[in-house]
Design a protein that fits this description.
Blueprint: H1 2-5, H2 8-18, H3 23-30, H4 34-42, H5 49-58, H6 63-72, H7 90-103, E1 108-111, E2 117-120, H8 133-136, H9 142-147, H10 159-177, H11 180-191, E3 212-216, E4 219-228, H12 236-239, E5 242-248, H13 251-264
Length: 265
């Protein structure tokens, strides 16, 4: 609510500075004069609804922030924010369910913008068997599950590199979205005990990706992850969903996952 209370000029200037653009850069990209943009930022001119949308597009603002910018300029929000269970989201929900089910037996999950778990397939539960029930209560947070001492941290063989990968990714996301909730999550994750920098020899994957190596029983499972988003989303909720899919990085992992999921069914 504090963000919505700021005037439209202040918000435009802050987002322009976050994107490291000069007034001239943004004006040229938006096809307006730098003088007009200056007037918009200082409040000497009031932007039209079309102008707000053009500027927010050039600034690559998240849909949630575009709605706030429109509200600050005196216009109604453009993008809806529906639950994934809303009847109007049936098509998107079906797409999510198809991806999750089609990816089995390999683990796959869906998270919101703050990495809270929205849905998961059957490949995920066996990997979380040793996680503290307190971390799984309510709506679990995937980053917290991964790095908390009572979560998967004790089982991640390459914890130092995986921790660095996750926190670095979250920092980039927080900076791009200017999201204070993500900033708070980063602070929390960084407060967890840090492992030694060299806790295991990195798996040779040709330098193409950082694997997650997870100790399950006496076996080390190695996964590569991919990320999927809805590229044409016109709803705030849908635009903030991320599908994380994990693939076995070796044959031994593939065999073990098949066994785990089969036993979990």
């Amino acid at each position: 609510m504090a963000v919505a209370a700021r005037n439209v000029g202040d918000q435009l200037r802050e987002w322009r500075q976050k994107r490291r653009m000069s007034q001239l850069d943004l004006a040229l990209d938006t096809e307006i004069s730098a003088r007009h943009l200056s007037f918009l930022e200082t409040g000497r001119a009031r932007p039209s609804r079309e102008m707000v949308l053009r500027l927010s597009e050039q600034l690559d603002m998240p849909m949630r922030e575009r709605n706030l910018l429109l509200t600050a300029a005196g216009f109604a929000p453009l993008f809806g924010e529906r639950s994934l269970d809303d009847p109007e989201m049936a098509g998107a929900r079906r797409a999510v369910d198809l991806i999750l089910a089609g990816h089995e037996p390999w683990p796959a999950l869906v998270v919101d913008r703050c990495w809270n778990l929205i849905a998961a397939n059957r490949g995920v539960a066996p990997l979380l068997a040793s996680v503290s029930p307190a971390l799984l209560a309510g709506v679990p947070n995937i980053m917290r599950l991964a790095l908390h001492p009572d979560g998967l941290a004790a089982q991640i063989v390459n914890l130092s590199e995986w921790r660095h990968h996750l926190i670095s990714r979250l920092k980039r996301q927080a900076q791009a979205a200017s999201d204070t909730e993500l900033d708070d999550l980063v602070t929390e994750l960084e407060s967890y005990p840090a492992p030694p920098m060299a806790d295991a020899k990195p798996q040779d994957l040709g330098g193409i990706a950082v694997p997650m190596k997870l100790l399950i029983g006496e076996r080390v499972l190695s996964f590569l992850s991919t990320t999927t988003v809805f590229g044409t989303a016109q709803d705030v909720t849908l635009s903030e969903l991320t599908l994380e899919t994990f693939f076995p990085a070796d044959d031994a992992t593939a065999e073990m996952v098949r066994t785990l999921v089969s036993g979990d069914s």
